[in-house]
Amino acid sequence: MRVLDLAGEQLRVRLEAKREKHYFEVPMPVAVYDDLHGSSMGAPTVTGTEFSLQVLEAVTVLHQRGYHRIRFVAMWAPTGLHVRMFVGRDSEVPGGHPREEFFDQIAYTSLDDADEPARNFAGTTIPAWWSAEMIADQILAAIPPIEPRADDPDYVARIQDLFEHHAAARTVPLTEDERG
User: Fold this and answer.
1) Measured at the alpha carbon of residue 25, what is the angle toward residues 24 and 28, in degrees to the nearest 5?
2) Which residue has the higher pLDDT, 157 or 26?
3) Which terminal residue of the chain, N or C, has fewer Cβ atoms less than 10 Å from its own Cβ?
4) CA-wise closest residue to 110 among 77, 78, 79
């Protein structure tokens, strides 16, 4: 440790170069700090139900962009404790549980209903604050290339109805038997 001794001529020069300043101190008592800290917002979180709705909304965004052959499937896991969700091209996700050989070509996850700041899906960790457009872009990046042909309006209408129904009810958008 080094101690600098500012004295003599150096001190005199420093004092001659002084500048007048005016400022205020704002006291921050510990109780005020604790109150502010306790009421501050933490990172946003999302439940499994909310995340499944975000992903379904992202699929509707892809459909609006003309990617009608993107499929969404959500179903109860055999235990009934989680929801399995799959998104991919209709050749890999034909409307039911995809075959394991296609898992590297689709976006999928298993969801519980815990509050989480992020969820693993589509090859990355998706934070709760991502928009449907951002998730849609990530889905396109995670699956093999597909052309936006806008050629299946019946499926698009069914998925849009599914999204609207479950978004209004704030429920898991299951595409198979919803009784579990």
Assistant:
1) 150
2) 157
3) N
4) 77
